Amino acid sequence: MELTKLTMKEIKEYLERNITIIIPIGAVEEHSEALPLGTDFFTAESLAIELGKRKNYLVAPTISLGNCHSITNEFPGTISISPRTLISLLEDYLKSLYEHGFRRFLFVNGHGGNIAPIRCAIDELSNIFKNSRFAVGSWWLFDEISELYDNAGHAGRGEVSMMLYLCEDLVHPERFTEEKIIPPHCYVSKDLVKAEVTETGIINDSQEGSKELGRLLFEKSIEVYEKLLEELEG
Q1: Statement: the pTM of the whole predicted model exceeds 0.85
Q2: For the chain, what percentages of helix, strand and coil (3-state, to nearest 5) are there?
Q3: CATH class of residue range 3-233
Q4: Contacts of 177 (CB under 8 A, 6+ apart)
């Protein structure tokens, strides 16, 4: 069930039996010349909608823009909103849902730059909301898929595989390449990104993915999100 495709009558009826909502969040950022700029939000949205279907939960509108202020903001097409702006957006978004009666919030996150702003927004709202619980799942960080994901980098094997499975028509295999530069264990200013992190938009990985690996990553991630939902509801 997608919130935007329902009427207020159906939302009222849903809230009579369930106070949980799934919130997909991603980003619009470069993923090399082979993957679409919407990779992060396509993945998060697909996971959230499938999870909602399987468990009969409501899915909120995808927050498609994220914090890309470091590294990827140097590349064409990336649209970044600042961490402060994202925190404010998340607070207003969650407050609206809370006012209507939602009390259990599961974020299906598709972008690393969103993790800290989501946490900050939750920290702020946990002092205001009552009887509320929050969970955040970033699929590529799940322990349960670590062997499958195998430390894949940004725009690398893992994301290539997910996109081949979910949106194959948006992938350009003829442009697959690799860039294996181990990034520094520190943050760098934007003028150092291409010299020290990535020139191609791929971070320390190849693009040797497969549709089958994407299917396995997707299905295993759904299983983990199902567990998060169970824990969220107590």
Answers
A1: yes
A2: 50, 15, 35
A3: alpha beta
A4: 32, 34, 200, 202, 206, 207
